[in-house]
Design goal:
By secondary structure, the protein is an alpha/beta fold. It is 19% helix and 26% strand. The protein starts with a strand and ends with a strand. The model has no long low-confidence stretch (mean pLDDT 97).
Length: 274
């Protein structure tokens, strides 16, 4: 089994590193198809921020909240439709659509579970408060739904469980979530985007020392040196009982501000999960 996690693609009005959004999304499609030809994968799990549809920065603000233009819908129709395998999307903090509008755009609920082989991925909506708020904002963190996680685990006995969200605010999460992660052996790890980093962190004793694996970006890096967390995706590979993850960076020719440079294909921020 091989699954890719991808987040923070941000189809919008902003150009990054010498690429406008449309050209960047075309490159993403090309990179994913090349990866599939090189080594097929079973699913793509997208963990939010496909747009700046809801955005607190003026004078433009969100393309949808201030102008009725859904770049999330455009991203799905124009680019996700070209991905080479089943793709599942949850919202980020810039997709503050109502439950009804989100389902119209994506064909799915704001939270759900995905089964791939003997693994189940709990796709959480952690920005589900104050949806479609009248005031421009960056979203309201709504905490992880422990009831939904528990039900999903009960419905999938014997499966390895991975918790996925746009963001896990580990220090601020409820005690019941920390306890569930810490005491549930079936929960292997957490995956999230939002930070535009590709790092792996230990969630600490409150979470039983389990890992949070971040999914980088395909827009802009939050690192002082952007090349340290460049465009890419995180993979999860299962071979027998062995589970490994790494951040995959396809080759890109970009301009960080001092002329064009080529970032070569490579893997980074890898770990064994089992």
């Amino acid at each position: 089994m091989k699954v890719l996690f991808l987040s923070d693609t941000h189809l919008c009005h902003i150009s990054w590193y010498g690429w406008d959004s449309r050209a960047r999304m075309e490159k993403l499609v090309c990179d994913l198809r090349k990866e599939y030809e090189r080594e097929p994968y079973d699913a793509i799990l997208m963990l939010g921020d496909y747009s700046l549809d809801y955005w607190e920065v003026g004078p433009l603000y969100g393309s949808y909240s201030n102008g009725g233009v859904s770049n999330t819908a455009a991203f799905i129709e124009d680019y996700v439709s070209q991905f080479p395998c089943p793709t599942y999307l949850i919202p980020g903090n810039h997709e503050q659509y109502t439950h009804e509008d989100w389902e119209k755009i994506t064909g799915a609920k704001r939270s759900f579970a995905v089964n791939v082989g003997d693994c189940v991925f709990v796709m959480l909506d952690n920005f589900g408060e104050n949806l479609n708020a009248p005031v421009h904002n960056h979203g309201t963190y709504s905490f992880s739904d422990t009831d939904f996680i528990f039900r999903t685990i009960e419905q999938n006995p014997g499966k390895k469980v991975f918790l996925c969200a746009h963001h896990f605010a580990l220090e601020h999460e409820r005690d019941e979530f920390k306890r569930l992660v810490r005491e549930t052996d079936a929960i292997v790890a957490m995956f999230a985007g939002h930070t535009h980093k590709s790092d792996i962190i230990c969630a600490g004793d409150e979470y039983g020392g389990k890992l949070l694996c971040r999914t980088g970006n395909y827009s802009y890096s939050s690192m002082p040196n952007p090349a340290d967390s460049m465009w890419g995706w995180r993979e999860l590979v299962a071979v027998g009982d062995e589970l490994t993850t790494a951040y995959v960076v396809p080759e890109s020719t970009v301009d960080f501000g001092a002329g064009k440079v080529t970032v070569p294909f490579h893997r980074q921020d890898a770990a064994e999960l089992a």
